[in-house]
Amino acid sequence: MANLRSHLLFSYGTLRQDDVQRALFGRLVEGQPDAVKGYVLSTVRIDDPDVVAKSGSAVHPIMVATGDPADEIEGMVFTISDSDLAAVDRYETAAYRRVEARLRSGRRAWAYEEADRSDEL
């Protein structure tokens, strides 16, 4: 069964909202506080009406890489399944890309950062 594998997911934004978790996973997911280093927060406008309906907002936070270890974003780390991760991939718009990030705790987790559009030129 594919759902037996688990993943760590770092969330700093709408994935921490109860309504978003219920819509994506069908349940609430418990997490632990942590932070990702080398990033700052910015915002992005979301045009996908389904994502806006789930989150309740057209403006979402977005991680922007700085490479400076002094920069960090506080958030939560969730343990989720393969199917949960696939649901998050569908939820996040093209403004984001999934990357493996190092956390303050030393763990590594999936996180969604600003998509690099320079390679699309």
Structure description:
The protein has 3 helices and 7 strands. The longest helix has 10 residues, at 82-91. The protein has 121 residues and is α+β, with helices and mostly antiparallel strands. The chain is 21% helix and 42% strand. The protein has a 3-stranded antiparallel β-sheet with strand order 1-5-2. The protein is globular and about 35 Å long.
CATH homologous superfamily title: Gamma-glutamyl cyclotransferase-like
Q: Which residue ranges are poorly predicted, with pLDDT under 50 across at least 5 consecutive positions? A: none
Task: Report the order of strands and helices.
Answer: EHEEHEEHEE
CATH topology: Hypothetical upf0131 protein ytfp
Task: Report the CATH C-level class.
Answer: Alpha Beta
Distance between the termini: 40 Å
> Helix content range of the residues, please?
10-25%
Overall geometry comes to: globular
Helix and strand composition category = alpha+beta
Largest sheet: 3 strands, antiparallel
What is the CATH architecture assignment? Roll
Mean of pLDDT: 92
Total number of distinct structural domains: 1
Range of strand content = 35-45%
Number of helices in the DSSP assignment: 3
Count every beta strand, where a strand is a DSSP E run of 2 or more residues. 7
In the sheet with the most strands, the strands line up as 1-5-2
Q: Keywords, please?
A:
121 residues, alpha+beta, Hypothetical upf0131 protein ytfp, 7 strands
In short:
With 121 residues, the protein is α+β, with helices and mostly antiparallel strands.
